[in-house]
Amino acid sequence: MIPAAFDYVEAVSAEAAIAALGQHGDEAKLMAGGHSLLPLMKFRLATPSVVIDIGRLSDLSYINDGGDHVAIGALTRHAAVETSDLLKSQAPILAHVAGEVGDPAVRHRGTLGGSLAHGDPASDLPAAILALNATMVVKGPSGQREIAATDFFTGFLQTALAADEMLTEIRVPKVPDAGWSYQKFNRRAQDWAIVGVAAVSNGSTNVALVNMGQTPLRAAAVEAALGGGASAADAAAAAAEGLTPPEDLNADATYRAHLAKVLVGRALSEAGAG
Amino acid sequence: MTVNGEVRSADVEPRTLLVHHLRDVLGLTGTNVGCDTSSCGACTIHIDGESVKSCTMLAVQARGANITTIEGMATNGELHPMQAAFMECHGLQCGYCTPGMVMAATSLLKENPNPSETEVRIGLEGNLCRCTGYHNIVKSVLTAAGGAA
Amino acid sequence: MTAVMGTPMKRKEDPKLLTGEGKFVDDIQVPGQLWMGMVRSTMAHANIKGIDTSAAAQMPGVHSVYTGSELADMDLWIAPLPCVWPVTPDMLNPPHYPVAAETAHHVGDIVAVVLADSRYEAADAAEQVVVDYEVLPVVASLADAVAGEKLAHQDLGTNQAYHWALEPAPEAVEAAFASAVHTVKGEFVQQRLIPAAMEPRGVLAVPSPHGGELTIYSSTQVPHILKVMFAATTGIPEQKIRVIAPAVGGGFGAKLNVNPDELLAVTLANRLGRAVRWTETRSEAAFSTHQGRGQHQTIEIAADAEGKIQAVRVHLNADMGAYMMLITPGVPVLGSFLYTGVYNVPAFGFTCDGYFTNLTPTDAYRGAGRPEASYAIERAMDMLAAEVGVGPEEIRRRNYLAGGEAFEDLETASTLVFDSGHYGPNLDAALEMAGYSDLLAQQQARRDAGDKKELGIGLCTYVEICGLAPSRALAGLNYGAGGWEAGTVRLLPTGKVEVVSGSTPHGQGHETSWSQIVADKLGIDPNDVTVLHSDTAISPLGLDTYGSRSLSVGGVAIAMACDKVIDKAKQIAAHQLEANLDDLTFEGGSFSVKGSPDKALAIQEIAFGAFTAHNLPDGMEPNLNEQVIFDPPNFAFPFGTHVAVVEVDTDTGGTTLLDYIAVDDCGNQVNPMIVEGQIHGGIVQGVAQALYEVAEYDADGNCKNPSFLDYLVPSPTELPNIKTGFTTTPSTSNPLGVKGAGEAGTIGSAAAVINAVCNALKPYGVNDIEMPATPMRVWQAINEGSQG
Known about the structure:
heterotrimer; A: alpha+beta; Uridine Diphospho-n-acetylenolpyruvylglucosamine Reductase, domain 2; Uridine Diphospho-n-acetylenolpyruvylglucosamine Reductase, domain 3; five-stranded antiparallel β-sheet; four-stranded antiparallel β-sheet; 12 helices; 14 strands; C: alpha+beta; Aldehyde Oxidoreductase, domain 3; seven-stranded mixed β-sheet; five-stranded mixed β-sheet
């Protein structure tokens, strides 16, 4: 399994990467750690004619205290997120979920921004970002803009990023005292979640679901039920409401919906919600 | 790039996977290819001391990197303590997954020098073996950790 | 010299493998080599109407592109790929050539091949070949094949390849069922498995255009068999062919075949005068390497009021896949003899129908027929226990051969003579090691507390048939070869020893175990022994490694060769010491004269004397160099008791293997460390079948999960430590009293795990669950069971 040939551009800055994206259009792909893109390229499911390597933009690898939030550079490796003391104290669910991605070798190379920009509904990190109400900072040719996590994932492997935009920073609200839980159900530790649930309870409760639709998504019906005063158990029963879960070898839609209910129940309980 | 302490430079086609560069160009065939989906870990090497799956990295991404492969683990004819522990505990049979296991396990101990059995099993989640049933691999890593302490 | 037999000597193989020094096929490069890129059928059953290779031929680095029909016209082969086990005289066996010329019969059937200068260029060019298919109806499952509405091979007119029966006493079986107090019937699916040795297969064929020789490096378990088969299929003179199996990264049966890719490499290298090579990719392996299992089993037991078995009746439908590979049809036949398990079965009947499908061919996979048999009888025994109302351990005890007491050379209803067994103490040991009664109490305590995580305890008491095999027994099964093995022991002038092994390792540690045998026999340091193997030029005689045969046939041959060396050395010693043969004793590597301890000769001194040949008895040939070809008088029958402990989360259906206890009996052991390692690995492959693995196909015959993303080979995280114990009942089939250990774990574990899952789910009305017991399946079974 070998990628098809492509031209390689090594970006020396975010601006240069954005300019290269503008120049090559749809034919180009940004590559950070490569752990989302390269597997697709090896099966020739992705055949970009230009790969723009942003992996060396070390100025986009950081975890900083931003006052009311933690600012994380898009090129920060999963392993750095997992082991960050700042995140462990201010947004512990994100550090925990970063440690659930793939395996240690994958976490040494894969990046937070790369994973989020890939927008895979079966990925762990988007759920944590959604449950945390994080903000995505993106740069394009005309400057920088912010996108709420809840507006970021727009379709299957699609995000709100324009073709010539690049995710540069993720801003995570500090929630040091929030209850939280991440429930991941799979058959092998290294695998994607069959269903995953991220819950953050900080007064109100945010619940996000992994692999329950076309995109990473919030469990709107659960949140509404909790907001309306429902018990955790009753709210969990609404976990799959309004959703069309995918079907694969591990789970049909009925079983996925059932798992979502069980795991939301466990997540709410662990997060101390409802 | 620096590989096992030696500076090695080459022009490569951009699509060349790092594992193929190491094996086919540099002749370092100890790093193996066991799958095509970053699942099995047979190709695990160290970049700056951390485990990385070299099948999921382009050679060009490794420009300037400090790489260690299984060939760089033994020093002065002495097996690395992890290699010695695998031999002591019968942590290998056919030996195909072994270089990747050794590289993953040494990286694991660097991050967690005193792991529990469960932590070893979780730490090796990305490395598959078909021969040993893992029992003796886990024992090897725990033995190496004990020896290092 | 301290004893080395029976000690856990560290492996001689390890330093090379641990440092990257070991060379697997893909590690070996030769100048001028061409890489094959396979163009594989994307259709499971289709006529090939045309192939356009023009774009591929123009790609950079491409040497040539050949379609199936072009290759057929090149007269590269004189016979189709071999099947050496035509189980019945009328078995159907459609011709199978390396490349399909007219019709592709499974997804992955090679339809064209590209030769290019590099791995990358071969892959690029193969992608550019355009094939025009006329799609035919697809037999996409064993059920499709049995239904017979569609044909896997149109010209055969049927999907059924053969009907095989082992019915020594059909009337007795009928009578037993007619008068039985209890009967149980189990229907089980042995799902298709992808063997998934960690090293993908590969081949490198290096010709000598002027000398005419051909050296083939193959990732194979069977270099000797390959040599014969390459000669028989290509017409290349056998003596010109040399096959080398370098370091081989696991086999498990998947590397005992004669494969289309190998034959292509051999013939193209020979024709073109260039080295030709290929290395399988993991996702390709689902199509290019045979799969295991693929059976539907029906087993019935008739028993009396106490649950004592009166008869066992079995029918199998077996999925051959698209073609008969080397021993495809024989796999279920090999298992047939073990459907009576370790039990006293007065009457037994077995029938098997083999069917073609348009799927990847099946063939041997760890245990080959025997795990399937063990699974069926051990699942059925649990059903019988429930029917009779006794515990699973009690139903087994009541039915053990010889009442669980020690026996030797006991004839069973399946016509085999079991070499030795002693089942009762083995069960006792396993139950005690597992803390069985305590486990049952824990299970009840959880239930009483309303715990939604159920504990399940499963037993399996297996027997396996290994040490393949007595050649005459194989003749009776219509197998196309013998079952002997060769071993040579050669003392070098300096007193060191070279051993030539006919059986070929791929992870089993032959170099170490054989050194131990020789060191023990000759009274020398095992580090003075080197074992040569896996190269037909160095080890010309051999039948290789499969069916847990290496030690009980090949290792025994080496032990016997040592005895011959000692006999000859003794004659030399008597001659040189001027003593009577009867007055000589051999101990610690030295011959001495009884009563005159100063008159002694070390075997190394005798070796040097035999080399110079200055002073040998009249007529004696120089050198100590003895070969034995051992053909065992009987198989060996290892046995054991396995206990699996699982936790089933009834909310999610997720099953966790909490604990695994295995007490095995493989007779005498040469290296207990290696034996234990074999048991561990075998167990996990059976656990993998029970809980994780299945090759899934869609209605069009596409494998849906060829990669390791979806084909779930378990990782360390999913598994517990394994507790092993042993009893020792020496075999009567060979002078070392050894049996075999390579497949035992797999033969015991799938049944133990599924018995445990069913045990956990008993309160939910679940009596059976199909493998693999995925979380979804378990959850569905709980729902259906509770509603039913």
